[in-house]
Design a protein that fits this description.
Blueprint (H helix, E strand, L loop, with lengths): L28 H16 L4 E3 L9 E4 L17 E10 L4 E6 L7 E8 L1 E7 L5 E7 H13 L15 E3 H4 L1 H4 L6
Antiparallel strand pairs: 1-2, 2-3, 3-6, 4-5, 5-8, 6-7
The protein binds nickel (II) ion (NI).
Nickel (II) ion binds next to helix 2.
Length: about 180
């Protein structure tokens, strides 16, 4: 399965609201092939996550986690590999946290983004099995970032303080020595 081109900020397809995956598509060849392309694309880019709209598919499908440390975020906690379809996010409590994010559709940049510290996410895996987890910290941040893509939202739209937005190699020269190009 091919590594697909990742759309970059400025492409109108990244601003569209994604459609739910219909019930009959769970377990389908279409979905399996989409997910394989997304996995291959995410792995090739060392991504922490990927949403279907980033490869030009307007469906509510996201992938995140790898079960091992990510070279782009070497100090972040490990997130289990997860396929999440038709997600519903519910913040738990009112606490927010601000931390650095990057995005494969916004290459070369990082910014500080406020997110809910703790949330519940619900949805389905590729076979239609329900997923229901309550998570916090980095895991919660990754879910919010990926699910934002399904609403046409990119992380720079959430930045409150643009003094904390810049080029990764300027902000984190030591990180870039270890990580891939973005
Ligand atoms: Ni992203």
């Amino acid at each position: 399965m091919p590594v697909r081109p990742i759309l970059r900020m400025g492409d109108a397809r990244l601003l569209a609201v994604a459609e739910p995956v219909p019930e009959h598509a769970f377990g389908s060849v279409w979905l399996a092939e989409l997910l394989q392309d997304m996995r291959d694309t995410m792995a090739a880019a060392n991504g922490a996550g990927l949403a279907a709209p980033q490869i030009g598919v307007g469906s509510q499908v996201v992938l995140f986690g790898s079960g091992q440390p990510n070279p782009r975020y070497p100090d972040a906690p490990v997130v289990p590999p997860t396929v999440l379809i038709n997600p519903v996010l519910t913040p738990m409590g009112t606490e927010e946290a601000v931390d650095w994010e990057g995005c494969l559709s916004v290459p070369g940049l990082r910014g500080q983004v406020p997110r809910w510290q703790k949330l519940r996410y619900q949805g389905y895996d590729e076979n239609g099995q329900p997923i229901d987890r309550t998570v916090e910290g980095f895991h919660a941040r990754v879910v919010q970032h990926e699910c934002d893509h399904l609403q046409g939202m990119l992380y720079p739209m959430r930045i409150l303080d643009f003094r904390a937005f810049g080029f990764t190699d300027v902000l984190f020269p030591q990180l870039l020595a270890r990580a891939a190009d973005d």
